[in-house]
Fold:
Amino acid sequence: MIALTDHDTVGGVAEAQQAAAQQAAAQQAAAHAEDTLSLEVIAGVEINAEGSWGDLHFLGYYLDLESPLLLERLAHMRDARVDRAREMVSHLRSMGMRLDWEEVAAIARGDSIGRPHVARALCNRGYVRTMQEAFDRFIGRDGPAYVPRRRMTPSQAIETIFEAGGVPVLAHPVHSGGGATSRIPEFVTYGLRGLEVYYPHHSPEDVDFLLSLCQKHGLLATGGSDYHSPSAHAGVSLGTLDVPYACFEALRDAALSSS
Structure:
């Protein structure tokens, strides 16, 4: 199984599910049924939430991709991302960098526009050598061209996932702002169902700590690679993080019980 959880969009989920179905059909046509492998693509999303306490991400699994509230709020978030990226390009231009909005949009190729696309444009123009350098020097949180992102509150993010029939999970709790682990009881009152326990940057001690919190608050344990793309400035390679299969089974059972 694999979960596709892009930031603030579900635009690629249907395509991924269709590709998995086509691959399974091709295998069945070319081999004996017992030799085929099936791939389940879970409809997911990663929603950004922020407040005076810091930055948090909430994962949603097994979503109804036609949910009106989900689509409306994600569209609002994507519009805000475009406005933010435009403002960053404007700042960079005022600093003497000849960037065009059209080239940033072309790099995104119709995807939800964000800072990585601005970073890539800076690379393409030769202003930086790597995307990481673009973040470090210009568009990171302390950079001269940084623009804060408009985000949902935690309660809104969890509500959006829940209303779309999904299972809300707090992403990488140990590496989130605002003392995320201390606020878990609050998030549970909003409808939180799980914690992302298995994560590339969680130490064995972090995993044990988060498993204890799951047991204490009756939450699911999930995991993910946080893989973005081959050229992304963070995360790990796809498929390199071992997540116990039991996590998937428990997540699927939770989704079925709430549907």
About this structure: The mean pLDDT is 89. The beta strands are 2-4, 41-51, 54-61, 167-170, 194-198, 220-223. DSSP finds nine helices and six strands in the chain. The longest strand covers residues 41-51.
